[in-house]
Write a structure and sequence with these properties.
Pfam families: AstE_AspA_cat. This is Succinylglutamate desuccinylase / Aspartoacylase family protein. GO terms for molecular function: hydrolase activity, acting on carbon-nitrogen (but not peptide) bonds, in linear amides; hydrolase activity, acting on ester bonds; metal ion binding. The protein is of the alpha+beta class. It has two domains: 219 residues, Aminopeptidase (3-Layer(aba) Sandwich), CATH 3.40.630.10; 99 residues, RNA polymerase II/Efflux pump adaptor protein, barrel-sandwich hybrid domain (OB fold (Dihydrolipoamide Acetyltransferase, E2P)), CATH 2.40.50. It contains eight helices and 19 strands. The strands form three sheets. Strands 3, 4, 5, 6, 7, 8, 9, 10, 11, 12, 14, 17 and 19 form a 13-stranded mixed sheet that branches. A four-stranded antiparallel sheet has the order 16-15-13-18, with no helix packed on it. A two-stranded antiparallel sheet has the order 1-2. Strand 3 and strand 4 form a beta hairpin. It is globular, with a radius of gyration of 21 Å.
Length: 371
């Protein structure tokens, strides 16, 4: 996919929001009108703006661009109410819910059935989604130098915390590594996505993918806050500590392993697990337990995400694998030494609570046929 240069939105002051002016060392709650209701009522999204003592970069942190992905909303809320950041330089723009219409309906999409995260940079005379995207793009990206957008997996799936970004951009690469996740997925993002268009418009932006929809999961919140603070530390906006993950790997190729037959899954892996080519991912059985087929990894990989729904039809996604070409054995040894009560172990355990993970049967070996 060819890269292109995006159009930078008109630069807006991060300190002035309508009639509200945020002075150095102040925090203010403001609102951004994004659309109108059927009865012509203005519909705003809440924004918290924190300004440091000295000038510096402006960073936005956003969540619920898909309205049902509220792990990020809970993380930003915790950042506001519990973390009490002492901002030394620059400005922090916190947007706990972007897609307010989807959020109010517990839905990924807008009422016009469009995906807001495919409509950037938006337009003045397009669909509801395009018009909202235009306002958000101009008012958030137009005030910012960097961005962090918090997401989860889609419905009936879960993701192990993973940073996604276009690492060919040096500042995206810098932020992605500073965030401190073990896994970084290197890609430019879909056409029309918020982080792709923001980065093209010279506002380097990364995405955290972590957890499930409709939940605020403690380990995901911990990952999110640690990562945000780590990026702000890297940018010298706070006097904090960089997150130091036990390992960090860049994934350039990933694949969803899909079902070839209908059935009922017995899972053998959890999110974040390392798997070797040919190792067991799941067993597909009938609902009475008769084995249909055995599903194995097509490549040395790490489990980026997986379905949480054991009932499958042909073509349904089962497991999202990030391919690892080197250092797999080294990573295996390292991961085995990690404490089970550490963040990595706790996250893997929490994210797999909605699936029954069991050891494969003795006859299911690495030599078993691959689906």
């Amino acid at each position: 996919m060819k890269s292109r240069k995006g159009t930078r939105p008109e630069k807006r002051s991060s300190h002035v929001w309508g009639n509200v002016v945020i002075e150095p060392e102040q925090t203010a709650s403001v609102s951004l009108a994004v659309t109108e209701s059927y009865s012509q009522l203005t519909i705003p999204i809440p924004v918290v703006v924190q300004r440091g003592k000295e000038d510096g970069p402006t960073v936005f942190v956003s969540a619920a661009l898909h309205g049902d992905e509220i792990n990020g909303t809970g993380s930003i809320r915790a950042l506001i109410t519990e973390n009490q950041l002492c901002l030394l330089k620059g400005t922090l723009i916190l947007v706990p819910v972007i897609n307010i219409l989807g959020f109010d309906r517990h839905s990924r999409y807008l009422p016009d059935r469009r995906d807001l995260n495919r409509c950037f940079p938006g337009s003045d005379d397009g669909s509801l989604a395009a018009r909202m995207a235009k306002i958000i793009y101009e008012e958030i990206v137009g005030r910012s130098d960097y961005g962090i957008d918090l997401h989860t997996a889609a419905v009936r799936r879960t993701n192990f915390p993973c940073i996604r970004g276009d690492l060919s951009n040096p500042e995206v690469d810098r932020m992605a590594r500073a965030f401190g996740c073990e896994i970084i997925l290197d890609n430019v993002g879909p056409d029309g996505s918020f982080r792709r268009e923001a980065t093209l418009a010279n506002c380097p932006t990364i995405v955290l993918e972590a957890g499930e929809v409709w939940k605020v999961e403690p380990a995901v919140v911990e990952y999110s806050i640690n990562g945000i603070v780590s990026v702000l530390t890297e940018l010298e906006m706070v006097d904090g500590l960089r997150s130091d993950p036990p390992f960090q790997i860049v994934i350039k190729k990933s694949k969803w392993v899909r079902a070839s037959r209908g059935g009922f899954l017995r899972f053998h892996v959890s999110p974040g697990d390392l798997v070797r080519e040919g190792s067991p991912l799941a067993t597909n059985t009938s609902i009475t337990g008769v084995e249909n087929n055995f599903i194995t990894a097509p490549h040395d990989a790490i489990v980026l995400g997986m379905t949480t729904l054991p009932c499958i039809a042909p073509g349904d996604p089962i497991c999202h694998l990030g391919f690892i070409d080197e250092k797999h054995k080294e990573l295996e040894k390292l991961v085995k030494k990690l404490p089970s009560d550490g963040l990595h172990g706790r996250t893997s355990e929490q994210l797999s609570t909605n699936v029954s993970v069991v050891e494969p049967m003795p006859h299911q070996t690495l030599d078993s046929p691959i689906e």
